[in-house]
Design brief:
The protein contains 12 helices and 14 strands. It is of the alpha/beta class. It has 2 domains: 1-113 and 259-376, Isopropylmalate Dehydrogenase; 121-258, Isopropylmalate Dehydrogenase (3-Layer(aba) Sandwich). A hairpin with a 2-residue loop joins strand 6 and strand 7 (156-161). It binds 3-isopropylmalic acid (IPM) and magnesium ion.
């Protein structure tokens, strides 16, 4: 297979971990006989320095020409947030990309690796029940993309954010979530605030209509406040969660902390043509940038998601995931997942990738690739 990937490393640890993910993509291409042509582009603060924009036209054009986008992280240090280089950097780059490419569905898996159970902030008995869930977040509707207004009335400032959902936006997300649930453990929880919000009432109505088309998947509705509690009280009850843009933003951060490190979290943002942007949602981690110690796993797993969802290369994707797990099994740990146990080997960014590449090399090549698609 011959494909072009737009590579957007971004800021902070982005370029460091991207370099490692590219090594893994190169190794997969070599091992499985593919050609991945990588075209680099700037976004975020690094783009602002060169172009005076967080998302220059040139970057959009490179992304448009690619078959998929591998994105790093954007954003500056907290202390410099007001500088023009960083002000609204994430919004200007990430939200614009989502809208531009109509990335309607966002997949955020959260899994506690058996090897890393002790890192989870939850009690061991809860973790032992197994935590492996997927949040499917609607990504182009809700208050994110409604009219934002700030004004003065009766002598005081006020602000409003319009939250809107159309039936088809809900349908796309819910269908995608059912398809995922079918391939996983067959359970879907749709999360809303239907006891208060009209958008949520519509969400629930549409989700239940879609559910009738998937009798093989166990379906339930849950209110978002309860879901936030259940994610901490007993996350093993969840397989796939589908929810609106704003609730998905909040719940996916709560879920991302369960495995104990943001350095392990990958994500995919997909449109109806299975064109996708793949990124670690953990951020640019400016506090550790430039030291070569960041965990490359989130970026590497984002590349694995890219192969699976945009290129249909399931075996290649699985080979990467297995190589990551084997490396953890062998005890390799970057600083933030190192707990000091005797069998652990504390490594830096490059050494972690080397372990993953060694395990990838050992993997057997299988040719049974099956395309996974987001329904139109
Ligand atoms: C995320 C982020 C973004 C969001 C921000 C950076 C705009 O928090 O991808 O979850 O709110 O969607
Ligand atoms: Mg977020």
């Amino acid at each position: 297979m011959k494909k072009t990937i737009a590579v957007v490393p971004g800021d902070g640890i982005g370029p460091e971990v991207m370099q490692e993910a590219v090594k893994v993509l190169d190794a997969v291409a070599e091992k499985f006989g593919h050609q991945f042509d990588l075209v680099y582009a700037l976004a975020g603060g690094s783009a602002y320095e060169k172009y005076g924009s967080h998302l220059p036209e040139e970057t959009l054009s490179i992304c448009e020409k690619g078959d998929a986008i591998l994105f790093g992280s954007v954003g500056g240090p907290v202390s410099e947030m007001q500088l023009p280089k960083w002000k609204d950097c994430e919004r200007n780059s990430i939200l614009t990309l989502r809208k531009h490419f109509s990335f309607a569905v966002n997949l955020r898996p959260s899994r506690v690796y058996p090897q890393l159970q002790s890192l989870s902030p939850l009690k061991p008995e809860l973790v032992a029940k197994g935590i492996d869930l997927l949040i499917v977040r609607e990504l182009v509707g809700d208050a994110y993309f409604g009219v934002h207004k700030k004004d003065v009335a009766d002598g005081e400032r006020y602000a409003t954010d319009e939250a809107k959902y159309t039936e088809s936006q809900v349908k796309v997300a819910v269908h995608a979530a059912f398809e995922c649930a079918r391939k996983r453990r067959g359970k879907l929880t749709s999360v809303d605030k239907a006891n208060v919000l009209t958008t949520s009432k519509l969400w629930r109505e549409v989700a239940e209509e879609v559910a009738a088309e998937y009798p093989d998947v166990e379906y339930e509705n849950m209110l978002v406040d309860n879901c936030a509690m259940q994610l901490i009280r007993d996350p093993s009850q969840f397989d796939v969660i589908v929810t609106s843009n704003m609730f998905g933003d909040i719940l996916s951060d709560a879920a991302a902390v369960l495995p104990g490190s943001l350095g392990l979290a990958a994500s995919a943002s997909l449109n109806k043509d299975n064109f996708g942007l793949y990124e670690p949602p953990g951020g640019s981690a400016q506090d550790i940038a430039g030291q070569g110690v960041a965990n490359p796993i989130a970026q590497i797993l984002s590349a694995a998601m890219l192969l699976k969802y945009s290129f249909g290369l399931e075996a290649e994707s699985k080979a990467i995931e297995d190589a990551v797990e084997a490396s953890l099994e062998e005890g390799y740990r970057t600083g933030e997942i190192y707990s000091g146990e005797a069998f652990e080997k504390r490594v830096n960014t490059k050494q972690m990738t080397e372990a993953i590449l060694r395990n990838l090399e050992k993997a057997s090549v299988s040719v049974c690739n099956e395309k996974v698609s987001v329904p139109k």
